[in-house]
Amino acid sequence: xxxxxxxxxxxxxxxxxxCAEQRIRGDxxxxxxxxxxxxxxxxxxxxxxxxxxxxxxxxxxxxGCVEGSGNLDLPGSSNWYVPDIAVVPEALAKGGxxxxxxxxxxxxxxxxxxxxxxxxxVKRRRYAEYRAPLYLLVDRIEGSVTLFSEPGDPGxxxxxxxxxxxxxxxxxxxxxxxxxxxxxxxx
Length: 187
Known about the structure:
Strand 4 (72-74) and strand 5 form a beta hairpin. The longest helix has 20 residues, at 43-62. This protein is globular. The strands form four sheets. It has a six-stranded mixed beta sheet with strand order 3-6-7-8-9-10, sandwiched between helices. It has 187 residues and is of the alpha+beta class. Helices cover 26% and strands 32% of the residues. The chain is built from four helices and twelve strands.
């Protein structure tokens, strides 16, 4: 777990950028490859995340974890992500600072028109690099879901999908549950 960056004098550009992100008021923002971007999803985007949260919440509770969209720091890079859903151990969530992707059990990104390629390519590569064990990509533009696992170099070594919305996708241990993706389709 990392805490908010020290904003004192003599800081490097990574720390300065992450410090600036922490000081922006109003909308939530994230840093993608050095660019500060708003993290303000649409209602359709939020609906898709809610459909997934409802399906995993009992298992998340049983694992002693929480699901949310807290900050993920990628130290040594100019990245500070706000995933749509991250599942983390409850003890780590109490710390208040940003977490590292390898401390998550699952990271979920839901695409929007404005960020689809970032979620498909950049975040997938970075989550693997920082060893997030499971990355679920909900591609609302393509109407599909893909579960990436087994992070390695230069990316995830296993992909389950893409599966069209309406398919059942198995989340492996420690979840051990099937996700019904039919509710992800825009109705």
